[in-house]
């Protein structure tokens, strides 16, 4: 177990001692991780938004230099330099976040749930039949995780996009997440559900939902 995993494991145990409930401890730990990574998320979103704003100009260059790929690449470099945009700036925050995501996955997958006296217990989701250290056999958390993933994907996609790959991912990712969370302890499904919901709140604050932007513009007119 590396240092990051140890810190998260100790944090989860401390939150349990404070709250007396492992489900609530997982929720609070998830929110704390999202809050810690919020500056990176904001930087990543700003970079992505600036790239999206340049897409019309990129398409113009593609049309203008479609028979001159080398010239197109040079003009792209000039475009990014003129607008002070680094096309790879959105990747660095994502790479920094990956160790945190892997660490929380490892912690929740291997965590030993014990009571305040150190005795092993069967942790449940607020007294329901969902056991946090076992897969949810009725697929309740996995289905909810897939649903909120779909909502996030749909809201993040511009309503006028014609990219078939983007539309395919809108449906593929929720199915993948649903399948994934049926194979692992329900605590991981709870983490994914909460982190996606927090992500929706963050996106609502900034930069907003591309799928709703045309409606907002129309309403403003």
Structure description:
The chain has 221 residues and is an all-alpha fold. The protein has one domain. 71% of the residues lie in helices and 0% in strands. It contains 9 helices and no strands. Helix 6 packs antiparallel against helix 7. The radius of gyration is 21 Å and the shape is elongated. The termini are far apart.
Count of folded domains? 1
Any low-confidence stretches, pLDDT <50, length ≥5?
215-221
Strand content: under 5%
Give the biggest sheet: none
H and E order = HHHHHHHHH
Query: What count of helical segments does DSSP give?
Result: 9
The percent of residues in helical segments reads: over 70%
- Rg measurement, Å: 21 Å
**How far is the first residue's CA from the last residue's CA?**
56 Å
The dominant shape is elongated
The computed structural class is: mainly alpha
Mean pLDDT across every amino acid position? 88
Number of strands: 0
Record keyword descriptors for this entry.
221 residues, mainly alpha, disordered C terminus
Question: How would you summarize what this structure contains?
Answer:
The chain is an all-alpha fold and 221 residues long.
């Amino acid at each position: 177990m590396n240092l990051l995993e140890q810190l998260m494991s100790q944090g989860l145990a401390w939150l349990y001692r404070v709250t007396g409930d492992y489900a609530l401890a997982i929720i609070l730990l998830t929110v704390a991780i999202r809050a810690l990574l919020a500056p990176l998320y904001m930087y990543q979103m700003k970079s992505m938004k600036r790239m999206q704003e340049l897409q019309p100009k990129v398409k113009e260059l593609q049309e203008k230099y479609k028979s001159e790929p080398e010239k197109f690449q040079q003009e792209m470099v000039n475009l990014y330099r003129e607008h002070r945009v680094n096309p790879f700036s959105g990747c660095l925050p994502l790479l920094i976040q990956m160790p945190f995501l892997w660490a929380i996955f490892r912690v929740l997958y291997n965590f030993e749930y014990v009571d305040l006296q150190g005795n092993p217990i069967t942790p449940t989701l607020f007294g329901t039949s969902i056991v946090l250290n076992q897969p949810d056999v009725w697929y309740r958390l996995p289905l909810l995780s897939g649903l909120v993933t779909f909502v996030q994907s749909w809201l993040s996609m511009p309503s006028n996009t014609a990219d078939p790959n983007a539309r395919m991912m809108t449906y593929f990712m929720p199915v993948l997440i649903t399948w994934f969370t049926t194979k692992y302890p329900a605590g991981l499904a709870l983490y994914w559900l909460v982190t996606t919901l927090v992500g929706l709140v963050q996106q609502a604050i900034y930069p907003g939902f591309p799928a709703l932007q045309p409606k907002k513009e129309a309403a403003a007119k």
